Amino acid sequence: MGMKVIVVSGGVLSGLGKGITSSSIGCVLKARGLKVTAMKIDPYLNFDAGTLNPFEHGEVFVLDDGCEADLDLGNYERFLDTNLASDNVVTTGKVYGAVIEKERAGNFLGKTVQIIPHITNEIKSMISNVGIKAGAEVTIVELGGTVGDIESMPFLEAMRQMHAEMGHENFLFVHTTLVPVLGTLQEQKTKPTQHSVRELRAQGIQPDVIVARSEKPLEDGARRKIALFCDVPVEAVVSAPDAKSIYQVPIFLEEQGLTDYLLKRMKLDLKPDGLEDWKVFLGKVMKPKHEVKIMLVGKYMDQRDSYMSHYEAFTHAGAMLDTSVKFLRVEAESLSKADNRALLKEADGILIPGGFGVRGTEEKIDAIRFARENKVPFLGVCLGFQLANVEFARHVLGMADANSTEFDAQTAHPVVDFLPEQKGLTKKGATMRLGAQPVLVDEGSRTAELYGATEISERHRHRYEINPHYIDMIQEKGLKFTGRSPDGKRMEVAELQGHPYFIGCQFHPEFKSRPKRPAPLHLGLVKAALEFSQRRAR
Ligand code: GLN
Question: Which residues of the chain fall below pLDDT 50?
Fold first, then answer.
């Protein structure tokens, strides 16, 4: 069978949930037995997402091969239950980089190098390579940004050409738009959708499916109007109302017949849907029996997306334990304020996620101390792990000025220091210790028990590590390193003895969490938090 491509574009405005739409389309097609992969096109000039500020773009998601990607890649991996690679991310920076490299190598044989055909050819080959490499029957291509943006034009042009070359049944366009409600009549307005489809047509593209985002389900009249004005069949206008959980969206699409429509349109077999497992998982997300409160002390708390993979990992863990995880989200710098202090006492568990820069680190250390001394379940990830060691050195080993050299280069006790290979590096892009690395875990440790294994692989993104000089001192006082790199040199996991759940890890377990396979250390935290809250209630 040849390869099919489904492009998901967005109109009207950004932030419509194109990522969830793309992931959900992939999910329902996969449930019909198709081999599906997904990729993201980000029309910005950055080579990758590694240098982007989480305030603007949300979390940086890390893939097995170390690619620092847009957070939508996390959604694809979770909804498709697959592992993706750096090829699944295309940016303008990458495309131009590749073309310029070829030009410098003399590959264009004296031709004038131009957007059409050189840039568009590069885009086309990047898209088809993803499908070929994955052996996918269907490749979902999410086009970031909004149709009409100058920077997305070469991509739309490449796609217009691909549609013509591959044929109508092999190349589909799904356009996501917003249907707002205005005025006293509370009528659903379709005009913005009409305009954005007109914009798409100006690029030579006619959408096959319109996914209409709205607060409430799309009314019949609005659906018909969109079908008429945008020239798509009524059954190809799909309503995507606000969902309580993102994991409902595949079910919304399936129930409206979108999967059948796409399969017919692609001339593929209509196999019965295999969404039973997904529905069981969703049922647990929607109807939990218990509740725990996990406090997340972070740095970009105004932006929910900054810690997306953690929230999802807790959702997966909660579903497995019939528990809803309520988040107490605290901006680290305001932790000393009285009400945030009170929140610490309310928390059944505390998570300190990864991070960079000194802002808020002292307050995070306070929260870690609170968890350690009051036996509140605690998980520290990456920076959280490093700071747990700093806290321990300061308050248990009595090294009052212990710190990471990231925050105090002059400290007398650099408990956390640069990775040796990082010294002398000046470039910031893609130079951290990145991606999947093996970790050996001690038999009998809590971590081994939670993973059900002593050899694990987890994704990394850091420049600093526990300074080997302090390892014995820290362990003697009860913070045991139960996970290390295979050469034994790098500390990967620490567990505090005599505490119900106090674990730190240098890697990011949140990135590999999946609906039916929650990240083990998040699962452990929710379990411990549940026990903690039950103990407290008694
Ligand atoms: N800033 C720390 C380091 O570079 C932690 C990184 C992280 O939390 N991802 O090692």
Answer: none
